[in-house]
């Protein structure tokens, strides 16, 4: 992997972190967050429940239970919700009844191993990622240590047909359609980079390379910008281990999880435009919330999820402006 840019060593952003408050959850481990048509916040927690919240009134309700481990979410045009469940595959939830149906759990007669994030077109086409075809969600660090590109981008057509669009991705993660639906942005956590897939030609272009942190989920925000959550900044030690001899990595993999390397705690969100130019950089070293993995913008606020907490973090974006567009230090547009 390339040497991390200088920005990776910083613990706070050049732009002051906005005012923020915690919104408690009844469960731990919200990995992604989305907003429904009525402005309510949706997230899934580690016990399998899908929660719906009115963050201003501090009201929460459980609308369904997947029976697995929900990760990425996407609200469909008809109000139903796509759920990427790490254990059960790609699901669809009817929030009115709580009914959960399986859309995809096998691809080419092989079970989905690690369904991660999804986005949907107006016609019902669903694009989704599988972070690794070799490691389960609970053992994600194995994929990072092995550094073998086993992630995939897949498409489910309205008629139910599923196609592998791209494979050999380095931990495929967040995915989002551009505003006109002509292209798709996707993140490779172990890239670490953002790429753009032209849906007309099939061409893939890396639009932000050698990022200072490991990108997770992507969501489309206001004014055409895309929010990317970074659970942690780059870890040079982990990256060196990923290119060490196989026996070293196997030895590390035999150690208890608590002894495996991890990145520094941080709360970090970046916004990019459709071409990968940086529009906002918000990072804080707060002690009460870290490891952001998903964010959703609505009505001037950014709702942030983390699998490490029983809460969401709500940022008041206020006057956070795009400012002059620039490319992150060390990246290649």
Automatic annotation (TrEMBL):
Pfam families, A to Z: SSL_N, Str_synth
Cleavable signal peptide: none
Lineage: superkingdom: Bacteria
Keyword Glycoprotein: yes
Region (Disordered) location: 1-20
Gene Ontology cellular-component annotations: endomembrane system
A GO molecular-function annotation: hydrolase activity
UniProt keyword annotations, A-Z: Glycoprotein, Phosphoprotein
Residues of the Strictosidine synthase conserved region domain: 123-196
Family: Belongs to the strictosidine synthase family.
PANTHER family: ADIPOCYTE PLASMA MEMBRANE-ASSOCIATED PROTEIN HEMOMUCIN-RELATED, STRICTOSIDINE SYNTHASE-RELATED
Record protein name field: SMP-30/gluconolactonase/LRE family protein
